[in-house]
Write a structure and sequence with these properties.
alpha+beta; Butyryl-CoA Dehydrogenase, subunit A, domain 3; Heat Shock Protein 90; two-stranded antiparallel ribbon; 18 helices; 9% strand; pyruvate dehydrogenase (acetyl-transferring) kinase activity; ATP binding
Length: 489
């Protein structure tokens, strides 16, 4: 009796209304994928579940002593910076501005990475030792250790090598978003962290990730522009190449077509998908990061389409027309408001409370994890490991950390430099490209973080039995460029 009583104090995040199926070692993996041979292969990796995985050059018995370097960086504070300050460098580009921007990024990245590494370290052992979160930790610490060793940048040639390193960083960190989301789902299954703490942790990690990537991509964009057209003067409200002028109606239509295409195979009996109907200011346009805008709109539109189809289209019956999804656009001086209204039957109050959380019931979390494994193109098994870095990256980091870097090899060609900030892969795009039936349950919580980061807001109101109104507010960045949102380190 005394033995069992100790379990009473373990916090449970979900009410007893959720019945959790028994947890097995392979509870979210499809049974067909687990032949006897496959189980033997998996068994060989059980030793990796210890505190110091054998594949890691960072997580070892000496890591405690190495951590004193991290603690020194935690004494430093990230430099508050507004979007206007960051983009202001681009009005008229000079050599000194490019070098100053490079050194800002060089100093800022290790400080911001150190803060998030410490957040991971202070999690309960059963959480931070989760495989996916351990991959994020490994990735962050490797980058922190590499970037803190880069010496001061003095010349354009040194900046070119620095840009190569930054570009590699963006590609190497692509898998972190997937690992964070999968780690949150596995934590939900194990119930090792209260839901509120899990949401706070995820929001902090995601906001910091956005901030770092904006800072890096902005510097790559400035360097690319300087290489192509130095000293060119930009318009007064220029924010940088990574921000594009977006006409709202065009982007809604583009995302709508993407959603219809992804759903067409799952609903082949539906000859005509729901259409969008617009009202309000149809000529509204604003500056924004297109990947973020598309992801937010995509998750909202796809949810509205799904609810409309499942509510109004009977199975096996061809429906000639379905109620449209109405989009109301309100264009004010400092922000734009979109109201997306559907007739998809609405959501009950209890479920409405849960859709904004990264924590799920164990049953739903297992289903989402199984779907993650079915998505093609997500680098779920990628790791950053100094021992296995490509020789080109080793050489690149070596150049940046050598004492003779200022006098080393000649600069990159302009055609090479032009590829720094373009054609970058996007985890958000891969998540949008996934097949419709691979539901993850993370779209709205993730969209809410992206909207909030840009001083916006995402809310949903529901009339059960009728439909939902989703209100998305986005601040016009040109009027909020003095807000130090990039300080969300």
């Amino acid at each position: 009796m005394a033995h069992n009583s100790c379990w009473r104090h373990i916090p449970k995040r979900f009410n007893s209304q959720y019945t959790s199926p028994p947890i097995s070692p392979f509870s979210y993996i499809h049974v067909d994928a687990l032949s006897d041979n496959r189980k033997e292969v998996i068994a060989k990796h059980l030793k990796e579940l210890g505190p110091f995985p054998t594949y890691s050059n960072i997580l070892n018995s000496q890591h405690f002593y190495q951590n004193t370097v991290l603690l020194d960086y935690l004494k430093k504070k990230p430099h508050p910076i507004s979007l206007r300050q960051l983009a202001g460098y681009g009005n008229v580009l000079t050599k000194q501005k490019i070098v100053s921007s490079a050194n800002f990024v060089r100093i800022e990245l290790p400080i911001r990475l150190a803060m998030r590494i410490r957040d991971l370290q202070t999690l309960p052992f059963g959480v931070v030792n989760n495989y996916h979160l351990a991959q994020v930790y490994e990735s962050y610490y490797h980058s922190f250790d590499a970037f803190r060793k880069i010496p001061q940048i003095h010349t354009i040639e040194e900046n070119e090598r620095f840009c190569k390193t930054l570009s590699t960083l963006l590609d190497d960190h692509l898998f972190n978003l997937s690992h964070l989301m999968m780690g949150a789902l596995e934590v939900s299954i194990a119930e090792t962290l209260p839901q509120r703490e899990l949401d706070t942790f995820m929001s902090s990690m995601l906001r910091s990730r956005i901030s770092r990537r904006v800072i890096v991509e902005e510097h790559l964009s400035l360097s690319e522009n300087y290489q192509k057209n130095p000293y060119a003067k930009k318009p007064p409200h220029y924010l940088g190449e990574i921000f594009q002028n977006c006409r709202a109606v065009d982007h809604f239509n583009q995302v709508s077509e993407m959603a219809k295409e992804s759903m067409s195979q799952s609903f082949p009996e539906i000859k005509q998908m729901p259409n969008l109907e617009f009202e309000g200011n149809l000529n509204c346009s604003f500056q924004f990061m297109v990947p973020h805008l598309h992801y937010i709109l995509y998750e909202i539109i796809r949810n509205s389409f799904e609810a409309t189809i499942e509510t109004h289209a009977k199975k096996g019956q061809v429906q000639q027309s379905l109620p449209p999804v109405k989009v109301t656009i309100v264009d004010s001086k400092k922000e734009v408001l979109f109201r997306i209204s559907d007739q998809g039957g609405g959501i009950n109050r209890e479920k409405l409370k849960l859709i904004w959380s990264f924590g799920k019931s164990p049953e739903l979390a297992r289903k989402s994890l199984a779907n993650f494994h079915k998505i093609s193109g997500l680098p779920l098994n990628s790791r950053i490991n100094p021992a296995t870095m490509p020789s080109s990256e080793k050489q690149n980091v070596g150049h940046m950390t050598s004492s003779s870097s200022s006098s080393s090899s000649s600069s990159l060609s302009s055609s090479s430099a032009a590829s720094w900030g373009t054609h970058k892969h996007s985890t958000l795009q891969r998540l949008m490209d996934r097949e419709y039936e691979h539901k993850l349950g993370m779209g709205l919580p993730l969209s809410s973080v992206y909207a909030d980061y840009w001083n916006g807001n995402l809310q949903m109101n529901s009339i059960e039995g009728y439909g939902c109104d989703t209100a998305l507010t986005l601040s016009k960045l040109g009027y909020h460029t003095n807000v130090v949102q990039l300080d969300r380190a």
